[in-house]
Specification:
The chain is α/β, with parallel strands linked by helices. It has 24 helices and 24 strands. The protein is globular.
Length: 618
């Protein structure tokens, strides 16, 4: 009888495989336990708050774009950055909360504002931060701003400081507002793509990049009107802050080439001589200056200070939980369904508003809008949810951020009051749809189509064929109906006749200041003003709590709610996870990517009309 036992070699290989498998399991488990241990250590480290000493400087180093709300959850954003992921964002609410708390804190003596890492921020957000800086200074506490290159947005905040210092090899860059965008008509013609546009509104220029090679006269006129208003306000404010004569900023920019040539190309010297900055100092010289004014930190060989992130983590909650003003953020493109933070999904945003409506502790709602619009259907879903909140007896106030135009204005018509920043980009009351067809592209490629349909709509929306005139008539009728609905909402909310609304609508964009003059907003102010007005409408008195209504965290974010920023970074550092991204390559393709994404999103193959504005904060 043959021996059926496995051979020696086979037994040896089997034993080796089992050994490798056991080793793999042990190593994976050890790594997993190690990660858990690091998170636990970081969590406990985050709980131990260092004692804040007298005469401490608050150091605010703004990282990345200033946003109303993190893209994704707050902890997801922090953990992603710590792991070398997306560029960091800074929430506006955190900046305002920290600065206002520090203004009242007797242990905070001064503020140092570092601006090198600050990214994008619209004028409304800049005004909010600047107002908080002014409140800090009004408390008798100086603000020192420093940067190596102060671009326009950064310089606006620096100008609000008590003193402005620039790196001796640095520059102040003032460029004005506006610029150029891509127009794709000739490119689409060469590709054989036909663009069919349906719109209502003389100034509804969002479709022009697809059908023209440049802006129309009406669009250019409207854009110049609001941009000139924004620029005049921006420059007048800087001139007042820097004690410069009226028109000095414009003259400084106009004379820059000649004056810079006379200084041998020294940008820093030019900024000093034009009185845009107070002195030129390296970072070490700034540190020495702060040491001479405050107390030393011998352990870290610097001046006594606390970072923005560490101070924020020590701020206690305040206000009566049973009397809350709930804030819901609507930031980004409006779509019909579910969206994460950083975009506006009709269902997800409506659910947040419903959550605020049914919460007995929430007595009033503020909707913070920062959107150029999107889906008309999605806008109407959100507006109706605001109506339901008002019917339930909860006042609703809109606080407009950088942009609240088209669909962003549509949803605003569901409120009791609308508060805009003077520089908010708003209006753009109009609707459009875009339908591309590629029959000429098909002809060039020698591809043909054919078939049968039981009714004309079955094949009418086929992009491979010329647009059916009946479909064009249906779409244009729908666009007209939606525009009339838009006008009716504005008419009811603003107590104007539809004819009067139509005069200031037609897709035209206004600044918040211009919109206020035309009755499209009730008041000019920031988020704080909107919260105060909501509380007053709800008659809840003082001592109420302000609460952001946000989606429940998912995934890793569930396990990181109480870790401080430094604790999150500590975990990443100990794991050695720092993977810098190719920022330059990403920036190079960003504009075309945005244009193509926008084009893809406008195609009404899905049967959607858009209330969207091709506008952004300057």
């Amino acid at each position: 009888m043959a021996d059926k036992r496995p051979g020696t070699a086979r037994r040896a290989l089997g034993g080796l495989f089992r050994a490798v498998d056991i080793t793999r399991r042990v190593v994976v488990n050890l790594i997993f336990v190690g990660i858990l241990a690091l998170i636990a250590v970081a969590w406990f480290a985050g709980q131990s708050k260092s004692k804040l000493l007298e005469d401490t400087a608050l150091v605010i180093d703004i990282k990345g774009d200033v946003v109303e709300q993190y893209t994704g959850s707050a902890r997801e954003a922090e953990f992603a950055e710590a792991l070398g992921g997306e560029p960091r964002q800074t929430q506006l609410r955190d900046l305002l909360g920290v600065i206002d708390a520090a203004a009242k804190d007797p242990k905070i003596a001064r503020m140092v504002l570092l601006l090198d890492d600050m990214g994008e921020a619209g004028l409304a957000k800049l005004h909010e931060i600047a107002a908080a800086m002014e409140r800090f200074k009004a408390a008798g506490k100086p603000v020192v701003a420093w940067g190596s290159t102060l671009e326009q947005r950064q310089y606006f905040l620096a100008a609000h400081a008590s003193e402005v210092y620039l790196q001796p090899f640095g520059a102040v860059v003032l460029t004005g507002f506006g610029g150029y965008r891509n127009y794709y008509h000739d490119a689409l013609e060469r590709l054989g793509v036909s663009i069919h546009v349906f719109r209502v509104g003389k100034y509804k220029s969002a479709v022009e990049p697809l059908i023209d090679n440049g802006p129309s006269k009406d669009a250019a006129e409207a854009e110049a009107f609001y941009l000139n208003d924004e620029w005049a306000s921006f420059t007048h404010e800087i001139e007042a802050l820097r004690h410069l004569p009226a028109g000095a900023v414009g003259e400084t920019i106009a004379e820059e080439p000649a004056r810079l040539a006379a200084l041998g190309g020294d940008f820093a010297r030019w900024a000093l001589e034009t009185k845009l900055v107070d002195a030129l100092k390296t970072r070490e010289e700034l540190r020495a200056l702060m040491l001479s004014r405050g107390k030393p930190d011998d352990e870290h060989k610097t001046f006594r200070q606390i970072s923005f992130a560490d101070y924020r983590s020590q701020m206690p909650e305040s206000g009566d939980r049973s009397r809350q003003v709930g804030i819901v953020v609507a930031e980004g493109l409006i779509t019909d369904g579910e969206e994460p933070q950083g975009a506006i999904g009709a269902r997800s945003t409506a659910e947040l508003l419903r959550k605020a409506r049914v919460d007995s502790n929430v007595k009033a709602i503020v909707l913070r809008v920062d959107s150029g619009g999107g889906s008309a259907f999605g806008s109407e879903v959100i507006r109706r949810e605001l109506d339901l909140a008002r019917v339930a007896g909860k006042p609703v106030v809109i606080s407009m951020s950088d942009v609240a135009a088209s669909g962003g204005y549509w949803i605003s018509t569901g409120a009791d009051r609308i508060i805009a920043d003077p520089s908010t980009i708003t209006g753009s009351i109009g609707v459009f749809g875009v339908f591309p067809t590629v029959e000429r592209t098909m002809d060039k490629l020698g591809i043909h189509t054919g078939g049968v349909a039981t009714a004309w709509p079955a094949a009418a929306a086929d992009l491979r064929r010329p647009i059916d005139s009946r479909l064009g008539s249906v779409v244009q009728s729908s666009i007209g109906y939606i525009y009339q609905t838009f006008l009716a909402h504005v008419s009811e909310a603003r107590k104007m006749t539809p004819e009067k609304v139509d005069e200031i609508a037609q897709g035209r964009v206004w600044t918040g200041r211009q919109a206020h003059e035309r009755g499209l907003v009730d008041d000019l102010g920031g988020l704080q003003s909107a919260v105060q007005q909501a509380a007053a409408l709800a008659k809840i008195g003082d001592g109420y709590r302000t609460t952001y209504i946000e989606a429940e965290p998912k995934g890793w974010a569930q396990f990181l709610p109480s870790m401080t920023d430094s604790a999150v970074e500590q975990v990443a550092d100990r794991l050695g996870l720092a993977l810098p991204l190719g920022d330059a390559m990403r920036a190079a393709s960003q504009q075309v990517h945005r244009d193509l994404a926008w084009l893809a999103g406008t195609a009404p193959v899905t049967g959607k009309a858009l209330a969207h504005c091709l506008c952004q904060a300057p």
